[in-house]
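During data preparation, a discrete fold description was generated, as reproduced here:
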Amino acid sequence: MKDKCVLVGISGGIAAFKICSLVSSLKKKGNDVHVLMTKEAEQFVTPLTLQTLSGNRVIRDLFSLDENPEVHHIALARKADVFVIAPATGNIIAKIANGIADDMLTSTFLAADCPKLIVPAMNTYMLENPVTQDNIAKCASYGMHILDSASGYLACGDTGKGRMPEASVIQDAIEMVVSKDRYLSGKRVLVSAGPTREALDPVRYVTNHSSGKMGYELAKAARNAGAEVTLVAGANNLEDPVGIDVIPIVSAADLAEEILARQSESDIIIMAAAVADYTPVSRADQKIKKSEGEFSIPMKRTVDVLAALGKRKREGQILIGFAMETQNLIENASKKLAAKNADYIIANSIADEGAGFGVDTNIVTIISKEGLNPLGLLSKEETAERILEFCVKRED
């Protein structure tokens, strides 16, 4: 997401201070960010701070003469690609649900016809009040997107639902609603991501260095393209993407069970997980104590999930696998394409700088029956978009 005009509306809740990191992040990604504040919001965060972070004058007063005429609420509404209100208090939600436009924020919101995202943040009892819930439902019925509040300790001292989600979650939701190329609308996409853990005993396990980032970006790219996405994910430190059904798994056996159970209902399957090829023959019930001399662990093969998917692949279903090698990458990945009956294999470099485990960039080559398509060094986000466009969009 870049080169978008993003309007960020801030109403008078304590969570307003959190919006600074969102504005900064959106700006860093190359977007034109305009902040609109209610007078109450200025009690929690200063306009000067947000003006510095956004690079644009903060819009505060509908009738002020010192505002640039070019940021009049109608002109600003027309240029917006997305409008997010965060935090959205019970009061501001009630206003927008009923078309009240008595300040710059609500007037611009009413005039805008771009995608709109509302992020409720307030006391639990205010949020759960039937009036607030009716107003939220009313906004949703008008086509506005609602990002669920988080749960936890609230500024008022209560614990429960009503916290504003972190800036990264809000940005993920913005990227979801702003996407216009919905070429996967009506499709079901199944993605695997992250490592598996094969237990030796209650304390130890065998695993790999996969962070899950590539699989998560593929899931988000498919969601942004309009697909209904299920993400089967091994242990990782990533936030669950907005609008995606995340199924946590631990072992290769868990992954095989969840993926194969969902194959028949999926139009596109992307196996980006780093799945263990071997697992211990048995798991010790107690911690294995150290002793003198060598120690060996009998291992057995795990289910080859990609091969199993290839054998059961139905007509029209697209199967995409991944291959990571330390040598002879293209040769070994090309063999995998035929052996697994996949439509595409993504040859994932680990030897080149800027690629592999734990980093935010990647270098991949898309391998198909037609030949090779190297993508070069890209962010994992852009790599995911390019993979889907090449492997899926051109099929339509």
